[in-house]
Amino acid sequence: MPISDQDHSTLRYTLIPRTLIFLTCEDRILLIKGAPHKRLWANLYNGIGGHVERGEDLLTAAKRELREETGLSDIELWLCGTITIDTNDNPGIGIFVYRGECMVEDLQESIEGTLAWILLNQVFSLPLVEDLYQLLPKVLKTSKNSPNFSALYTYDEDEQLIVRFSD
Question: Residue 27 is part of a domain; what is its CATH number?
Answer without folding.
Answer: 3.90.79.10
